[in-house]
Amino acid sequence: MAEDEDELVYEVDGGVAVIRLNRPRSLGAFTWPMIDAWARALREAQDDEGVRVVVLTGTGEGFCSGVDLKALDEIEATPIERKRMLTDRVHKVARAVEDLDKPLIAAVNGVAVGAGMDMALMCDMRFAARSARFSEGYIRIGLVPGDGGAYFLPRLVGPAKAMELLMTGDFVDADEALRLGIVNRVYDDETLMAETMEFARGIAAKPPIAISMIKRAVHQSMRTDLRTSLDLISSHMAIVQATDDYAEAMSAFREKRPGDYRNR
């Protein structure tokens, strides 16, 4: 699709769905129709059995710079309408991410600021271009982190460092983000998507039921005690071992060949 035709582009390539934020002139700042399309794309990826992994990226020099300030002018300036702006609009994406049981990887191609950084943080993994820069910039305009930053960031960097970044709005470059654990990997700008897609296809080639349950187990373990987590994983293990995926994985392992899960 032409770069200026759609604010968000959704494509599926070899088991990997790519959601591309497509407002380069605004550094990926989102509008309300774009948020709706974003949430729809995540739901479509969830419902499509041919999709095994989802990649979220931007266009040009921006991954996402948060809400387009012009969109804020459409909101009635009352507390309840300001709240609904988040709960009924922006948080659609967070809820769709929560419902996605497939790996979600952010390929952060440029600046990720405010809600844009939050959108990256809510992904399962983050790969960054060397030019990428991150900032929880809400405080710069007198706001609190409105899209999960106060939830996701402490889980990655610890509460003390999270408070520093949230209270200062300071920018973090890609190398520092890697050191802090905000991103998993850093790639040259020109190879970011190729490297991310290669990684995503590698995950997509693995047993999908086990991948889904690993994701579920990790998220569950962050909200439960050890005994509950161990009880849950024993149930997951019993279910996985009863699947065709498991039988194929064991056969492939014994026969020293790649597993084939395309029709499973």
Structure description:
It is a single chain. The protein has 264 residues and is of the alpha/beta class. 48% of the residues lie in helices and 16% in strands. The chain has eleven helices and ten strands. A six-stranded mixed β-sheet has the order 1-2-3-5-7-10, with helices on both faces. β1 and β2 form a beta hairpin. α1 packs parallel to α3, α5 (149-157) crosses α6 (159-168) and α9 (208-221) packs antiparallel against α10 (226-240). The longest helix is centred in the middle third of the chain and has 21 residues, at 79-99. The protein is globular and about 60 Å long. It starts with 7 loop residues before the first strand and ends in a 9-residue tail after the last helix.
List the main descriptive attributes of the protein structure presented here:
single chain, alpha/beta, 6-stranded mixed beta sheet
Mean pLDDT equals 94
Largest sheet: 6 strands, mixed
Output the strand order for the largest sheet.
1-2-3-5-7-10
Strand content bin: 15-25%
The backbone outline, from C-alpha atoms, is globular
Q: Secondary-structure blueprint of this entry?
A:
Elements: E1 8-13, E2 16-21, H1 32-47, E3 53-57, E4 62-64, H2 69-72, H3 79-99, E5 104-108, E6 111-113, H4 115-121, E7 125-129, E8 133-135, H5 149-157, H6 159-168, E9 172-173, H7 174-180, E10 185-187, H8 192-204, H9 208-221, H10 226-240, H11 244-255
Parallel strand pairs: 2-3, 3-5, 4-6, 5-7, 6-8, 7-10
Antiparallel strand pairs: 1-2, 8-9
